[in-house]
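Hey, I was hoping to borrow your eyes for a little while. I'm sending you its amino acid sequence along with the backbone structure tokens. Take your time with it, there's no hurry, and the full record follows here.
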Amino acid sequence: MSTSGLGELFQFIGHFLFIAISLTLLIYGIWKTGKTRHILVFLSIIVFGIYLIWVFTKNSQKNELEQSYVGEYELTKYKDCPDCILKLNPDNSYTIYSSDKEYESGKWKYFDDGDIFYVEFDNNGQLGYNEYEYRE
């Protein structure tokens, strides 16, 4: 389940602007002659470099936030199982188990659209909601 929000729109606009400005400078740099050409191509490279740094920094921050969710959670409403534990693993797999039985396993994903962030499971459940509520 993907959410659409204002943060996602701003991210899209930011990507578009950086690429558009970089390409515009590069195209004008190719058409111009002399010193102007070198300046425009250089500016194009600088703008695109700033864009790449922004993208890599954003991805790095997302990975750090994603890893902050790794651990065990004591579920409170999971399918008549008052002592079930949800374990989120660093490889984005999860397991729900109790002392005697494994109930569910699969993959989890971290989503951040700029406005909200959440952990979602293969079956579209979300950490902290409905059967995936947990004790803090």
User: Anything to note?
Assistant: The CA atoms of residues 5 and 116 lie 8 Å apart. The chain has a mean pLDDT of 81. The radius of gyration is 22 Å. The chain has two domains: 6-67, 70-132.
